Amino acid sequence: MNDISIIDQDSPKRSIVTLIYLITMSIIVGAAGILSIIPAMFSVMMLDAPDAVKQPATVALAASVGFYPIISFAALASSWKAYSNDRRGLASALILLPCINLIVGGLAYLYIDTFRNGQLT
Questions:
Q1: What percent of the chain is helix, strand and coil (3-state, nearest 5)?
Q2: List of residues 6+ apart from 11 with CB closer than 8 A
Q3: Distant-in-sequence, close-in-space partners of 76: CB < 8 Å, separation ≥ 6
Q4: DSSP class of residue 7?
Q5: Which of 49, 50, 58, 96 has the largest count of CB atoms under 10 Å?
Q6: pTM value?
């Protein structure tokens, strides 16, 4: 019996589904990470306004945009490392780490837009 295989002998269908899920999510997260490099470089400009650093929502929005490429590439690397160590559940969870940035950034943007009338200061 071959011990080295991409398909787990106990649940081959589940292993293939996880592999397809990781490949699909890797393409999506990788493309989003690459496309977010330029907005991340300009995210520090949100903090240029007077007293913008004193507003937690502005800092949260700038941090979520600025760290998105780093988090997405770290999620890709760590999820594939977990998958190679036969930890499929952890790999499936780690690939979703950039969603935390999207949720925090979205909530911060909604707060700024709703309660601060779109002003970062």
A1: 75, 0, 25
A2: none
A3: 26, 29, 30, 33, 95
A4: S
A5: 58
A6: 0.83
CB atoms within 10 A of CB 76: 21
Closest CA to 46 of 56, 33, 36, 61: 61
Amino acid identity of residue 105, one-letter, is G
**Would you give the end-to-end CA distance of the chain in angstroms?**
65
* Rounded CA separation 65/21 (Å): 25
Run means of pLDDT, 10 residues per run, the chain, 121 residues = 51 81 96 97 91 91 96 97 92 96 96 88 72
User: What secondary structure letter does DSSP report for 43?
Assistant: G
Amino acid at 41: M
The C-alpha atoms of residue 62 and residue 53 are separated, in whole angstroms, by 10
Rounded to the nearest 10 degrees, what angle do helices 68-84 and 98-115 cross at? 150
